[in-house]
């Protein structure tokens, strides 16, 4: 419910939201269930429902590169 509430407050459809979290079992599952993309900080690589990055610096670099 919190995931969709945030999208509503920001007046964005869920598919336009990139959720950033650190717990795949909670953050990635909830974001995907809400229709959002998810990045997990502290987990490199790909999971079933998220992209992992090792740090916020890596996340910034990847976003700036258009990934």
Could you please describe the fold and organization of this structure?
About 40% of the residues lie in helices and about 20% in strands. It is an alpha/beta fold. The protein has a single domain, classed as Rossmann fold, CATH 3.40.50. The chain has a 4-stranded mixed sheet. It is globular, with a radius of gyration of 12 Å.
Helix content: 40-55%
Number of distinct beta strands: 4
State the end-to-end distance. 28 Å
Could you say which overall geometry the principal axes of the C-alpha atoms support?
Answer: globular
Q: Class in CATH? A: Alpha Beta
The profile of the biggest β sheet is: 4 strands, mixed
Unreliably modeled segments: none
CATH topology: Rossmann fold
Cα Rg: 12 Å
> Count of helical segments?
3
**Could you say which structural class the secondary elements and strand pairing correspond to?**
alpha/beta
Topology:
Elements: H1 2-9, E1 18-21, H2 24-33, E2 37-41, E3 45-46, E4 51-53, H3 56-64
Parallel strand pairs: 1-2, 2-4
Antiparallel strand pairs: 3-4
Give a brief outline of the structure.
The chain is of the alpha/beta class and 67 residues long. It is 40% helix and 21% strand. Strands 1-2-4-3 form a four-stranded mixed beta sheet.
